[in-house]
Design brief:
The structure is a single chain. The protein has 201 residues and is of the alpha/beta class. Helix content is 49%, strand content 14%. The protein contains eleven helices and seven strands. The strands form two sheets. The protein has a five-stranded parallel beta sheet with strand order 5-4-1-6-7. A two-stranded antiparallel ribbon has the order 2-3. Helix 10 links the parallel strand 6 and strand 7. It is globular and about 55 Å long.
């Protein structure tokens, strides 16, 4: 019997994408992709999600790619421009789950401790959770088992009675290994169907 829902945030409830910023910076799409795949990479960004300070991360890359200094500084200097808005369909599902009163609802997010407050101020629904575990604050992140355990222990969650929702298959597989039933998020419509099949919505 499910009594706890655990949401990922980025690409599930919040539309965040570096392309929104870098399309303004690069005229050439191929150049933009090269920059994001080879310089400001998702692996580099994940280190900040895991607690590395933004300034330290920025200076490291500038030392390596001095000719790209301006573009590298833009990553966190203009970070807000990467926020595309709320994913309204998922926010509506969240609202329904919350209003049903049947579930404790938590967030488990890979997010820098320095940028998360910006999103929290912008999106009212980020204040609806019964608790949020932010990787940058814990200096730990998905897909490491120990990060999931932080949430389970802090809020006394029984894995078998929880449901985890994430767009990243790697994170889903890690949760399932810990015995947490999971849904691989691809769209609000698919999430709604999955929740209805499980008699949760």
């Amino acid at each position: 019997m499910t009594n706890t829902i655990i949401f990922d945030l980025g690409a599930v409830l919040v539309d965040w994408n570096p392309h929104y910023l870098y399309r303004k910076i690069f005229d050439d799409e191929a150049e933009m992709h090269h920059f994001l795949q080879n310089i400001c990479t998702s692996a580099w960004n994940e280190e900040q999600d895991g607690g590395r300070p933004l300034q330290e991360a920025t200076e490291l890359l500038i030392k390596e790619y001095p000719e790209q200094e301006e573009n590298i500084r833009a990553y966190y200097g203009r970070w807000e421009e990467m926020l595309g808005g709320a994913i309204e369909g998922t926010v509506e599902i969240f609202r329904q789950l919350r209003e049903s009163g049947k579930y404790k609802i938590y967030a488990l997010t890979n997010w820098s401790a320095e940028t998360f407050p910006v999103a929290q101020e912008r999106y009212e629904f980020l204040n609806w959770f019964d608790g949020i575990v932010v990787s940058g604050e814990e200096k730990n992140r998905k897909p490491f088992d120990s990060f999931y355990q932080v949430l389970l222990e802090r809020y006394s969650v029984n894995p078998e009675e929880a449901l985890f929702i994430d767009d990243n298959l790697r994170n889903i597989q890690a949760a399932e290994k810990l015995g947490i039933p999971s849904i691989h998020f691809t769209s609000p419509e698919q999430l709604q169907e999955d929740l209805q099949e499980r008699n949760i919505l």
